Amino acid sequence: MINILSKEIYNKIAAGEVVDRPYSVVKELVENAIDAGASEITVEIEGGGKKKVRVTDNGKGISKEDLPRAYLPHATSKLKTAEDLFTVATLGFRGEALASIAAVSRMKIVSKTAEGNAYSLSSGGGLLGEVTEAAGANGTEVTVEDLFFNTPARLKFLKSDTQEEGEVSNMMARFLLSRPKIAFNYYVNGKLKYRSFGDGLDSALAAVYGAETVGKCYEISAEKHGIRIYGYLGNQNFSKPNRSYQSLFVNGRYVVNQTVGAAVTNAYGAYLMKRQYPFFVLFLDVPAEIVDVNVHPTKADVRFADNQIIYGCVYSVVSAVLDGNSKALEYLVSNKTEKGAVQEEIPLPKAEVRSTFPELKPQPQMSYEAAKKELAFDVSPVGGRTPAPRLFASDEPFTMKVNSPKPKEQEQDAFEENRAFLLEQEKKKQEKIDPATLAYKGELFRTFLIYEIGDDAYFIDQHAAHERLIYNRLVARTSSREQVSQPMLLPFVLSVNAEEYAFLVRQLPLLRELGFEVEEFGGTSLKVSAVPVDLQNIDLDAFFGEVLRSMETLNGIKLTDLLKDKLASAACKAAVKGGEFLTDDEAKSLITQMDGDMGLRCPHGRPVAVKMKKSELEKLFKRIV
């Protein structure tokens, strides 16, 4: 028997496609505000967006007659014909978003057009109330409360408030960047998190990543083969520990696209160290006919008619800027005048720097034939693509450079290596010597300490030994929860992006257990006031960088082990180095702390001590055969 689903059921099914988390609600409401022509948008969330989401804009508003229609499925002001699906320049979900959100929440819309009065309409789980007159300024205010209150199965799969807040904050950062001419205010639990004033991309970049970021980037603007590429690229010395600092906008919409991502990453290949990633905020404006925005349910990716041309354009622009060749002068904004001539760059105070990007506008419509001619590719009658003999009509033949993917390395972290070593040592008797019986004979190369007992000599690697001792103390204190902290003379402030901030906030209890005094410090910053006493000289930038590099792959790793692995690296940095001079008393103290254990290894598996018998030396000198 085939059943016809009720409106209540099919709206909830649609909601599952459009609204999966609080960030989806914020995304759809903000995109609707942008599409309504708003120049000021305020977003407020509480309880990670689960308790409340409110989006207020000064756009064109919704008339009294249209308010009930706004809640209906398949109702939109953005489409009229099927062809509009493939050339649409608006952002919202085109007729599904408000109805889907209303079906799984308590929603209220207050709206006023320039010509009329303000009116309000509420909904509870998709059931509409009455349209009533209300007080309000021009524009629309949408309030969504108790998300998924009537779908408990969906509610229980939501993440913690902090995690959901992090996803919303990460998305809001992209809105600030993608619409630099719109003023945004973003509040979390009543506290201002982001604010931009709609005065340009450089200002938006500073609002999201800090004012110092602008000075570490190249500002570019290029046009190749009908494709406009502009935005900011981190310079050769400015990289990040993960990909969360990479933003790509295609025709004004944020997407994650492998073709563009590979082009940028490969262009940076010669400049980045292992496990470092480029920083970029890039915009691509392409003719609507050569990009399909309907390949992903949430429009999170796009499909290009010819990936090779997109790759080639992006790669050639980015590599030219990084390599500093003659073409870079055409792409760097600071080297252009209004007439296109090169001028000497004059440094300006940061407060006076203003982006030269024109206001972001929808890409002018270009016919498919014109797009083909510009991009130099042909299309077969049945819709398949037949490449032209040359990809670019005006350039030399282009050879696409792609780094072959390497097999994923199976890396065992230092903590696991250390644990395996300790288990092995428990199975066999370790060589231990009473430190009092060892005679200190001096040092070699300011790296190896020499001890003698009977006919045996021991060479101790001072760095490996000290590193092992520091690590043992850290692990012991962590296990017994007796970690001792050392207050810092000046607190260390760590500024991260929204995604990293949410990750670190979840780890605060464990970080404190390890001996770090860390607290939230406003916006997306954290303040470190004390460190473990054994790590007084720790490089906090490097330590947190190591932790954040593992953020993307953390799901399959026990966090305690990962952080102990990072502490092992920190212990390495804090230990006495090879080449540093130790006094006799310091050398004797080290062997005493080792308790004469010559079987120790550093946390990374290297031996601490090497034993050499007198007979071995005599053989080297041919004293015995």
Structure description:
The structure is a single chain. With 625 residues, this protein is α+β, with helices and mostly antiparallel strands. The longest helix is centred in the C-terminal third of the chain and has 19 residues, at 462-480. It has 20 helices and 27 strands. It is elongated, with a radius of gyration of 31 Å.
Largest sheet, described in full?
Answer: 9 strands, mixed
The geometry reads as elongated
Radius of gyration: 31 Å
Distance between the termini: 96 Å
- Strand segment count: 27
Please state the structural category.
Answer: alpha+beta
Strand-residue fraction?
15-25%
Mean pLDDT: 79
Tally of helical segments: 20
Helicity level, as a percent range?
25-40%
Oligomer: single chain
Low-confidence stretches: 84-88, 337-364, 377-411
Notable characteristics:
625 residues; alpha+beta; nine-stranded mixed β-sheet; five-stranded mixed β-sheet; 20 helices; elongated
Secondary structure topology:
Elements (H helix, E strand, L loop, with lengths): L6 H12 L3 H14 L4 E7 L5 E6 L9 H4 L26 H7 L2 E7 L5 E7 L2 E2 L3 E3 L4 E7 L6 H4 L5 H18 L4 E6 L2 E5 L5 H9 L1 H4 L2 E8 L2 E8 L4 E2 L5 E5 L2 E3 L2 H10 L9 E2 L1 E6 L5 E2 L10 E2 L2 H17 L4 H4 L36 H8 L1 E3 L5 E3 L26 H14 L11 E6 L3 E6 L2 E6 H19 L4 E11 L2 H9 L1 H6 L3 E4 L4 E8 L7 H10 L9 H16 L9 H10 L15 E5 H7 L5
Parallel strand pairs: 1-8, 13-16
Antiparallel strand pairs: 1-2, 2-7, 3-4, 3-7, 4-5, 4-6, 8-9, 10-11, 11-16, 12-15, 13-14, 17-18, 19-20, 21-22, 22-23, 23-27, 24-26, 25-26
Helix pairs in contact: 1-4, 2-6, 6-7, 6-15, 9-10, 14-18, 14-19
